[in-house]
Amino acid sequence: MPPPDDPPSTPTRTSIIDSLGVEIVGVMSPVSICMLLVVLILTSLSSSSTTSTSSPPPVTAATLIYVESDSDSPSHKLLGAVLDAAAFVALIAAATFVLVLLYYYNFTSFLKNYLRFSVFFVLFSMGGSIMASLLQHFSIPLDAPTSIILLLNFAILGVLSVFSPAVPILLRQSYMVSVAVIVAVWFARLPEWTTWVLLIALALYDLAAVLCPHGPLRILVELASSREEELPALVYEARPTDSSHPVSAPVSSPVASLGSVEMQPVSETSNSNSNSVDEEERSPLVSSPPVVRENLSNFNHEQTRESHNSNHAVVEMETGESETLPLVEREGHRSSSNSDSEFEMFDSTRGIRLGLGDFVFYSVLVGRAAMYDLMTVYACYLAIISGLGCTLILLSVFRHALPALPISITLGVIFYFLTRLLMEPFVVGASTNLVMF
Amino acid sequence: MTVASGVGYVLIALGPAFSLFASVIAKKPFLILTLLSSTLFWLMSLIVLAGAWRAFLPVKSTELWPYSILILTSVGFQEGIRIGFWRLFKKMEDMLNAFADRVSKPRLFLTDKMLLALAGGLGHGLAHAVFFCLSLLTPAFGPATFYVDKCSNIPFFLISAIIALGFVIIHTFSMVIAFNGYTEGKRKDQIFVPFAHLIAAVITLINLVPGGCNVGLPLLCIMAGTTLYYSWQLVWRRLTEHQTTRSSD
To answer: What is the C-alpha to C-alpha distance for residues B178 and A180, in angstroms, rounded to an integer?
Structure first.
């Protein structure tokens, strides 16, 4: 008789499903939170701003050619929307090329300061106007000087947290999500046809810019990886809580709006984890800070969770960016060095990174769906999340830069129109008669 | 009637689902992914059904038979899809076991498989509650409430919240029963699930009759309770059997 196995069904047994999929969920939760916040803000503001819908939409880069008004015919609207989208995409492409040029000629401090300014501007000015409308809508008793001081603090802390490696990762992630929420709320004010055509056009542009040999983003990624540097950008980084198997491939999707890039300072911290330095002397870049080697140790010791966890906290704190990982050549990753202009997603040993533009445009799609009905919101949310999951799976298969927008946006648009045209009459008709299944 | 009642209706419909999520599913990311994919699956089946029925809408609510055909076809389709879902689940199980062998960790335990079934069922239930109840709840956050002609003593939102609650329970636990039934090959379990779903859906047909919801709602709750009880017995039996086979080695 064979000896008895381990003690039966003790809660200490770990199973593989305990930790599988942590990175994916780590990316999906901020995306979900961002979408939820955008939907909440839009629904609460739209109920209060019924009078302001009569005012013309702001003249933005996306409405340069044609501003939609309700009195035009559908074909006219469609044509105008296509022209608007084409102009916007052209603008984005031009901005990305300028970015490539600046990066090529090493104008790093200019890029860095421009990015800081743009984050401050988004948080203070655009965030301020949203805050003003929210205060007005909910009649919150907050006076002007106090709110300006609070806003200023918020914005300054945001600027500091985005580019400093010494800030806790949770704060950085929160600020990334807030920037994305603010930009998405602003974008969602565009007229309807323009929004949809713009989303589709951006998804196509993304596909082209990342996968075509001469696409600007691909050039950028290759440039950054050939220099073995970190391409500065506004990127959300999902830190894994434990070292999982190294899946690494940059996934990038194009810069949509801000097109700003920053060079992350490479040698930020040097005092961390000297204990692991000895183990992992494999980095080809001897001059890189010990931090970098720490990453390598994390990466290699995927099974030894204890060592990883013990060092992990330090690593997270110190190497705020983790962008400084040129080492992975050895391991056959060409990852981690670059994150593209804003909308790139890839995973390094630290976790998957998703560019802020992806957040913004997913939220714009869901926000636009929210302006119609909540049923479309749920359908689009599910579509986007499943598109994101597919993209992540493809990322682990292909292991190089992939655009994150196309699949999700396509699925989102399809599900929106299917739900609106097909499902809604069916479900609403049944449930208002209290017949459900 | 105000945000408080709106939130209250949401909690009535989704309270047990949220607590299941927070206590069981949120701890394991893989279960969250299973939940999302099963919600998507249910949504797609609903879209297919809606597409098939689009030409016949709107259905007159005064007669019983169009709705009964609608219910029969929808439930039949969804139960057929459940078998397809189970096949996908088997494939995923095989892939997970192969992966477990590769990284030399233990294979899937029985509790894991049941948790996966629970997550799948909760996904279905969540999708039902969201599309049939929550999407109509937006007016409940405003200043008034709404009554349906056929059921004029209970607010519409409350009825749909209670029905959604019943269906959440039915969907969640019938998935557990169904997966166990297909795995073990027990005919009784396999028959119970479509049967329960069909009876529950037919019970909602009673709501078409004026004053019918006073009968329909309690019956639906009884049905949900029956499903819960059945799955409780099944799981208890399975776990104790498994326990005894393990310890009798």
So the answer is: 42
Active-site annotation holder among A18, A143, A206, A242: A206
pTM: 0.79
B40/B49 Cα distance (integer angstroms)? 14
The β-bridge partners of A236 are A354
- Which residues, in sequence order, are bridge partners of residue B151? B148
Q: Determine if the peptide bond prior to A246 is cis (ω within 30°).
A: no
Q: Which residues of A touch B49 (CB under 8 A)?
A: 426
Can you list the alpha helix ranges (DSSP code H) found in B133-186?
156-184
- Give the residue carrying structure tokens 């997550």: B119
CA distance between the termini of chain A: 51
The answer to whether residue A432 scores a pLDDT higher than 60 is yes
Closest CA to A434 of B222, B156, B221: B156
Closest residue to A431, CB basis, from B30, B58, B132: B132
| Three-state SS annotation for A291-351 | HHHHHHHHHHCCCCHHHHHHHHHHHHHHCCCCCCCHHHHCCCCCCCCCCCCCCEEEEECCE
* Inter-chain Cβ pairs, chain A and chain B, closer than 8 A: 168
**Could you report the per-residue pLDDT of A227-279, keeping only the tens digit for each?**
776 666 788 888 765 444 333 334 443 333 333 332 222 333 333 333 333 33
Q: What is the pLDDT of residues B63-112, one digit of tens each?
A: 777 888 888 888 999 999 999 999 999 998 898 888 888 888 888 888 88
Hey, how many other C-beta atoms are within 10 angstroms of the C-beta on A402?
25
Phi and psi at residue A344, to the nearest 5°: -125, 150
Concatenating the DSSP letter of every residue in A181-218 gives HHHHHHHTTS-HHHHHHHHHHHHHHHHHHHHSTT-HHH
In 3D, which of B104, B101, B114 has the Cα closest to residue B177?
B114
Residue/partner pairs of A79-85 with CB below 8 Å, 24 or more apart: A80/A193, A80/A194, A81/A191, A81/A193, A81/A194, A81/A196, A81/A197, A81/A198, A82/A197, A82/A201, A84/A194, A84/A197, A84/A198, A85/A194, A85/A197, A85/A198, A85/A200, A85/A201, A85/A202
Under DSSP, is residue B122 helix (H, G, I), strand (E, B) or coil?
helix
Q: List the Cα angle A208/A210/A214 in 5-degree steps.
A: 75
Chosen for mutation from B10, B21, B32, B33 (greatest number of chain A CBs closer than 10 Å) is: B33
